[in-house]
Amino acid sequence: MGFIASLLENSLLMLSVAVLVGILLGRLEFKGFRFGISGALFAGLVLGHFGVSVPHSYFTISLAIFIAAVGLMAAKDIGGVVKAHGFKFVVTGFFMTAVAALLTFIGAKTLGTMGVVDPRYIEGVFSGALTSSPGLGAHIEGVSTAVREKITIGHSLAYPFGVIMVILFQELWPKIRDIDLEEEKLKFKKRIEGAKSDKGKELTKEDVTFSVGGFVLAVVLGGLLGEIPIPLGPLGSVKLGITGGILPAALAVGYVGKIGPINTRMSHEVLSSIRSLTLALFLAVVGINGGAGFAEAVMSAGAVLVAITLLVGLGTIAAGMLLLRGLWDLDWIIASGAITGGMTSTPGLGAAIEATGTEDVGGGYGSTYPFALLGMVIFAKLLSILIV
């Protein structure tokens, strides 16, 4: 038993096991559907349920490297993406989070009044369903200890379901709607190329195989950017955090191509390998850390919170689809990225990349995420005031 216990306490080994089992699980196919690399999340949930844990630093490191790789890969076309769809990302980010907040408020008021569940638990679903840790931070800032605990419980219960929901949407929706991904990729390229005004300059930028300095520069600049407080007047302030800081930094330095002697435009093949590895690690960490007490929470009052999580999550996705595909008729490459950005879901971004087979979705994600994050903070503050 001592040997088994030592194995279970070996965080790196358990994380690797989760990734390996997840990859094997992801290769299983059922009627054309596969979990792909997202299988690492479910493998992690099982290990976490049985008491396995890993340091939080694993989450931070894997997330930072994954986001930097995605940003550098999507950087080449980011100028065209912003020129073609700029204001739409602003509207999408705020609209999706506004819908999520409204659905959360309705759920808290109706079920809270009926005495079904404490409304503060439901309040935590807002940031959990949209998998937003910065949103949770804004939510619990300045509230009492008792309220903070209830909001955190609601967030923690909703978070895994928020992750799973976005992953399944990205995997299943193109199949349900029979979306021709190759045709959507052509639409994306056509719109982006049409928006570029300096194509000749783009062609002169050469990729290097890999630049350690360029990659680390994106992480350093993003880390600094993510720690800068953004004042929101009476609502306090917010920081972009890891995702919100590193992604725009990577997009910017990658788009520039070279800063002094440091190359920042790198081979997609190398970056894709880094992205796949760190995404698997990140998803496994999320699953392991979310697995403890997961089943017990669902079996208790969690059933109601799960139902509200699904309502908030699906309603938010529907809001994004209404704008991006219904009103603006954008290609699926941009739309899938923007929807995950509006949901502030990094695992969803990984699923979108896997499902579409292109990192170009990162442009829509990176352009929408900052506005969705700002919306999360603003509406979280409002919910804290309105839900009593």
In summary, what is this structure?
It is globular, with a radius of gyration of 20 Å. The chain is built from 18 helices and 4 strands. It has one domain (53-386).
What kind of sheet is the major sheet? 2 strands, antiparallel
- Mean pLDDT metric: 82
Order of helices and strands: HHHHHHHHHHHEEHEEHHHHHH
Q: Pick out the low-confidence regions.
A: 198-204
Helix content: over 70%
Q: Give, in spatial order, the strands making up the sheet with the most strands.
A: 1-2
Count of distinct structural domains: 1
Number of helical elements: 18
Outline, from the CA principal axes? Answer: globular
Which strand-content bin applies to the residues?
under 5%
Q: How far apart are the termini?
A: 50 Å
The count of DSSP E runs of length 2 or more, i.e. the number of strands, is 4
Mind explaining what this structure looks like?
- With 388 residues, this protein is an all-alpha fold.
- The chain has one domain (53-386).
- The chain has helices spanning 2-8, 11-27, 39-49, 56-74, 78-114, 119-129, 133-140, 145-176, 181-195, 199-203, 212-226, 241-256, 268-291, 294-299, 302-327, 332-342, 346-356, 361-386; strands at 230-231, 237-238, 258-259, 262-263.
- It has a two-stranded antiparallel sheet. It has a two-stranded antiparallel sheet with strand order 3-4.
- A hairpin with a 2-residue loop joins β3 and β4 (262-263).
- The longest helix has 37 residues, at 78-114.
- The radius of gyration is 20 Å and the shape is globular.
- The model is unreliable at 198-204 (pLDDT under 50).
